Amino acid sequence: MSQKIIIRISITLFLIFAAKMVIVASENELLSVGQMLYVPAYSHIYIGNKERPFLLTITLSIRNINEQNNIEITQVDYFESQGHLLKKMVRKSVIIKPLESIRYVIPENDSSGGSGANFIVKWKSNRKVNPPIVESIMIGTMSQQGISFTSRGKEIQIVK
């Protein structure tokens, strides 16, 4: 083989190896040992010109998307629009097994959270895992009208 071909093969192999390292690094960045999440929620929204409240049931869903590892939920707090704590949903840590889900419900008749309600959720694991999917699901019916929508949690802090 000529030296030019050997150099080209070497460069190609180096580039392939480097690309694989970048992929592995980016995959590892997705893993975590814990997070604090902010999850938007709405105990009601406003309808019509007179801004009439439309009451909603809120379900906070926490899903462990790992096939082999548990995660531990250490905090689930419910806040109202002005940021005041309304309810501590978790008094003692909760273990969520692989592919298991848990939920917390704020009933439709509890409008104390307002249109700016939210949850703070903290979770941790003893090893790097896929972060859970944390969503709030709002649903309500009035007369013959119904509404439903979701909000997904956003990481605001890495828990160590």
Which CATH architecture of the largest domain would you pick? Sandwich
In DSSP terms (H or I, runs of 4 or more residues), the helix count works out at 1
CATH class annotation of the largest domain: Mainly Beta
Query: Can you give the helix content as a percent range?
Result: 10-25%
Q: What is the CATH T-level topology of the largest domain?
A: Hypothetical Protein Tm1070, Chain: A
Terminus-to-terminus distance: 54 Å
The helix/strand class is alpha+beta
| Basic shape | elongated
Mean of residue pLDDT values: 89
Query: Runs with pLDDT <50, length 5+?
Result: 22-26
- Taken in chain order, the helices and strands follow as HEEEEEEEEEEEE
CATH H-tier superfamily of the largest domain: TM1070-like
Strand content: over 45%
- What integer value in Å does the Rg equal? 23 Å
Q: What characteristics describe this protein?
A:
single chain; Hypothetical Protein Tm1070, Chain: A; alpha+beta; 1 helix; elongated; 18% helix; 2 domains; 4-stranded antiparallel sheet; 160 residues; 12 strands; 6-stranded antiparallel sheet
Structure in words:
- The structure is a single chain.
- The chain has one helix at residues 3-30; strands at residues 32-40, 44-47, 52-55, 57-63, 71-79, 85-88, 94-96, 101-106, 118-129, 133-142, 145-152, 154-158.
- It has 160 residues and is α+β, with helices and mostly antiparallel strands.
- The protein has 2 domains: 1-30; 33-158, TM1070-like (Hypothetical Protein Tm1070, Chain: A, Sandwich), CATH 2.60.290.11.
- Strands 1, 5, 6, 7, 9 and 12 form a 6-stranded antiparallel beta sheet that branches.
- The longest helix has 28 residues, at 3-30.
- The model is unreliable at 22-26 (pLDDT under 50).
